[in-house]
Design goal:
alpha+beta, 4-stranded antiparallel β-sheet, 257 residues
Length: 257
């Protein structure tokens, strides 16, 4: 039985990389620190590495509720510490009395530095405070060059992980029936919109599936997928409970409050 049958085709290259790193750790008997991964990538790493073999994996994003986390693949004898993940946290100083920062603008500024998204962990926005989490290898570069968010001048101040603002996102579950597992159908159902209104968001790359932009309305969603649509929020396909007599799909979805 091929391991690839459990994953989408576009994930196969990532799986190959994880297998290569697993073999490297097994042969060299030393741990390997990887980049920040989103929850879908973390799930893939966990499933490929497993927990019963001589090679294991651990994750840390700077705080317990972190969504994006760095990964360490390590031999079973090694005891992983949080310090091994080489994470740096910056507080973004800005004139909060006059302007507000949002996640999209801060993300845009980080991407404008010319670094990969995988070098950055969570972006935390809470009222008049903002923080970014980065890999230590690029921290000094980020500190020197991250000077502006939108039109607002900012500076960065390094802080301890203990001072990260905890983010507790709440989800509300409900059961619904959909005519198919197409992306546009599920988004329309979850956000109470027509498929016609959903379509421009997908075509204009404002929709993500498992944190990756998806511009195909007919993309088939699977159990466990996380979907997001700009300005409307996020939802998860928690369970697919089967088809009704009218051949519709009964699914359980969780919507972020």
């Amino acid at each position: 039985m091929s391991i690839y049958q459990h994953f989408r085709k576009e994930e196969h290259a990532f799986i190959d990389q994880i297998i290569e790193w697993r073999e490297q750790v097994a042969n060299e008997y030393t741990y390997k620190l990887l980049d920040f991964y989103d929850p879908r990538e973390i799930d893939i790493v966990q499933r490929i590495i497993g927990s019963k073999e001589e090679v294991k994996c651990a994750f840390w994003g700077g705080y317990d509720q972190a969504e994006r986390k760095r990964a360490i693949v390590y031999p079973e004898y090694y005891e992983v510490q949080n310090e091994d993940f080489d994470i740096v946290v910056f507080s973004i100083n800005f004139p909060s009395k006059f302007v507000t920062l949002d996640h999209r603008k801060v993300l845009g500024s980080t991407m404008g530095l010319g670094l990969k998204r995988s070098k950055f962990g969570d972006i935390i926005i809470d009222k008049d405070a903002a923080q970014i989490i980065v890999a230590s290898q690029v921290a000094e570069y980020v500190r020197l060059h991250f000077k502006q968010v939108g039109k607002t001048n900012v500076t960065l101040e390094q802080i301890e992980c203990e001072n990260i603002i905890p983010m507790n996102e709440e989800w509300h579950e409900h059961t619904c029936t959909v005519s198919s597992m197409r992306l546009d159908v599920i988004l329309a159902e979850v956000f109470n919109l027509s498929r016609t209104k959903v379509l421009p968001y997908i075509q204009n790359q404002m929709v993500k599936v498992n944190w990756k932009v998806t511009d195909d309305p007919s993309f088939l969603c699977h159990q466990g997928d996380t979907l997001s649509m700009r300005t409307f929020g996020r939802c998860k396909v928690k369970r697919i409970e089967g088809q009704t007599k009218k051949e519709k799909w009964r699914i359980v979805v969780a919507k972020a409050k």
